[in-house]
Amino acid sequence: MPASAKPFAAVRTFASDVTDGFLQITHNGFALLGLAVAFVAITLFARPDLRHEGEAHLRDWLRARQVAVLDMPTEPGAIDRATASNPKDLPREQAAVAFWLSKKYRVAPEPLAALVSEAYTLGQNNKIDPTLILAIMAIESSFNPFAQSSVGAQGLMQVMTSVHTDKYENFGGRLAAFDPVTNLRVGVKVLKDCIARAGSIEGGLRHYVGAANLPNDGGYASKVLAEHNRLRQAAGLRALPAATPPQPLLTAAAKQATPQIAPLVAPAAAPVASAGEQVALNTNL
Asked: Which fold has domain 87-248+268-283?
């Protein structure tokens, strides 16, 4: 071999040795990496607690990164607290009611869709017309789940929370009165008891508003039943006969002194029961 070719041969030999060494190291490195991955996989499979802990740490890290990018806290599970659903997923009758109420009371159709669906379910289970339940919510609170009256009635159905505390025990306590669905369920229970006690829907509504022992209810039952009929028409159902306005109570002496002549106008409405009378009445339910 010429002397000039020896340096090139040495360089080729060196390069070949380096390449072989690199390939061997790389091969061994990949083998070690594969063994490490296999070991980790087997460990995680055998120890679910470690896997869950690792997943939790990863989720926390990703959430922290998202908070840093968005500059606001995130809570993907918050949607589970929302009382809302797509009204287009409801049956046609229920969807018509939800959109009608949304337009009249200026409330978003999504929360109304959830309430309408729940009212229909409760109505079927309790043998109460669901549009009557919705009419009571409309008159009582205009679908404000945080409404409170001057006598302490709260929520959508304006239930006397302080009186019906026991009915909220299965829902975690009296603060559940401000959960729309819970308030609706408790209100329907109270309404059902009132109707059963009175023996009629009109009488039950007077019990519900706390005017059972008064000459009349200040027009409450008439307002609810009128809204009830409007809701039935919005749902495509037949309207019910108009309610008979309650007559004032007369003593025996007054009945004898009063000529038996049909009145030309309806008697003036008396005020609804006071707070004390409402509490006393609802306590017996």
From this structure: Lysozyme (1.10.530)
Q: Domain ranges in the chain?
A: 14-74, 87-248+268-283
Give, in degrees to the nearest 5, the angle at Cα 123 between 79 and 234. Answer: 85
Residue 128: what are its φ and ψ, rounded to 5°? -125, 135
Mean pLDDT by 10 residues, the chain (285 residues): 62 68 66 71 72 75 67 76 94 97 97 97 97 98 96 95 93 96 97 96 95 91 96 91 52 42 35 40 45
- Give phi and psi for 148, each to the nearest 5: -145, 130
Residue 82 has phi, psi (to 5 degrees) of -80, 130
Question: What tokens does 67 get?
Answer: 């908070």
CA nearest neighbour of 183 among 211, 146, 222: 146
Please give the helix or strand (H or E) that residue 159 lies within, else none. Answer: strand 159-160
Q: For the whole model, what pTM was predicted?
A: 0.65
